[in-house]
Write a structure and sequence with these properties.
- This protein is an alpha/beta fold and 349 residues long.
- It contains 14 helices and 13 strands.
- The protein has helices spanning 15-27, 52-62, 81-94, 108-111, 121-139, 175-184, 197-206, 223-233, 249-256, 261-267, 274-281, 303-306, 325-333, 335-338, and strands spanning 3-8, 32-35, 67-70, 99-103, 144-147, 152-156, 167-171, 187-191, 211-218, 269-270, 291-296, 311-314, 317-320.
- The strands form three sheets. The chain has an eight-stranded parallel β-barrel with strand order 1-2-3-4-7-8-9-11, surrounded by five helices. A two-stranded antiparallel sheet has the order 5-6. Strands 12-13 form a two-stranded antiparallel ribbon.
- α3 (81-94) crosses α5 and α8 (223-233) crosses α10 (261-267).
């Protein structure tokens, strides 16, 4: 059974807007939320960069049933995994059974700020694996000490623990991170533009664990304006190479000058053409995912109003329009296709 969620961008929306959007998404039937965890936005045009754990507390206090997960937290460099363990445990206590911790290897954009060296990917994967072990050790209760290759914890105890620890969903963008997700994760998370990881995850016997996919869209009646907005806010989706190595929004903006509107539109479906949205959503790389989150770009001042207009149906629940509902209706129309098994022969799987 495919469940549908909505992605909250801390890079684009101010804290109050994030809370409002979370409440509206719950009211209109979305089953879960994903929220990004950045110190910096990708580029200055996005304009925001709130501390996600404060926002999570606000969402916990103002929603009742919708699930919430980070997409994703890097528990390795900028913030020690022992601190993330405490934060995630508190979030789960505040919203029991509703919080999950999405984790990944991070980006230099956010992790360099304290002057730490940015290691190569093999080291970051090792650090992430050890960080997950640290967090689960602390969640087991009592005083704990840990002496690893990357982290030390001495006589630490998390007093405020949930009845059950939160799930750890590991973000993966390629085969090596997919293997790590299968080895230590409770589930997998990826973006549509990223390839390779789902196959490794399933081939290691992890196919019954949840798999989260984020689909980025820019819905609008005026396709030209939607394309322009997507290019303005998210040129990073079409940047070649290892963009995680880039250190500042200014450097991303310099690279973004090389990215065309057409290139962004190949990665973010824009406009109101239902068939075009569907063709993107039904790529072989979407098959086999049981959690689909819509990441929608809107001008900030239009965000709340656009979720409140016309309503439609998704899984029998009412969904708000424009920002959420129009795309939700498409998902409902093609639900059976989302639930097809992934095509094993596809190089995108």
């Amino acid at each position: 059974m495919t469940t549908f969620g909505f992605s909250l961008s801390t890079e684009e929306l101010a804290p109050a807007k994030l809370l409002e959007t979370a409440r509206v998404a719950e009211d209109h039937g979305f089953e879960y939320l994903l929220i990004s965890d950045h110190y910096h936005p990708w580029i200055d045009a996005q304009g925001e960069g709130s501390f996600v754990w404060s926002v999570i507390g606000g969402i916990a206090a103002t929603t009742d049933k919708i699930r919430l997960g980070t997409a994703v937290t890097c528990p390795t460099i900028r913030i020690h995994p022992a601190i993330i363990a405490q934060a995630a445990a508190t979030a789960e206590v505040m919203m029991p059974g509703r919080f999950f911790l999405g984790v990944g290897t991070g980006e230099n954009l956010n992790e360099h700020i304290l002057g730490d060296r940015w290691p190569e990917i093999e080291v970051r994967l090792e650090m992430l694996e050890e960080a997950i072990d640290v967090m689960r050790t602390l969640w087991s209760g009592g005083y704990q000490s840990y002496y690893g290759n990357y982290y030390v914890v001495e006589n630490a105890r998390i007093y405020t623990l949930p009845d059950s620890p939160p799930e750890i969903i590991v973000a993966a963008s390629g085969p090596r991170s997919g293997e790590l997700a299968a080895s230590v994760g409770d589930g997998l998370m990826k973006h549509l533009s990223e390839c390779g990881s789902r196959r490794q995850f399933d081939e290691q016997g992890s196919g019954n664990r949840p798999k989260y996919l984020q689909l980025k869209v820019c819905y609008g009646d005026d396709e030209a304006k939607a394309r322009s907005l997507a290019h303005k806010l998210w040129p990073t989706v079409a940047m070649p190479g290892q963009i995680g190595e880039t250190a500042t929004p200014l450097l991303f903006e310099n690279i973004a000058e090389l990215v065309t509107e057409d290139q962004v539109a190949e990665m973010i479906v824009c406009g109101a053409d239902e068939q075009r949205h569907w063709r993107t959503s039904s790529r072989p790389s979407t098959r086999g995912f049981d959690h689909i989150a819509i990441a929608r770009s809107d001008e900030q001042e239009q965000a709340s109003a656009s979720m409140r207009n016309e309503s439609c149906r998704i899984s029998g629940s009412v969904v708000g329009s424009r920002r959420a509902g129009q795309y939700g209706q498409m998902v409902e129309n093609f639900r059976s296709d989302f639930e097809r098994p992934c095509c094993k022969a596809s190089s995108l799987c």
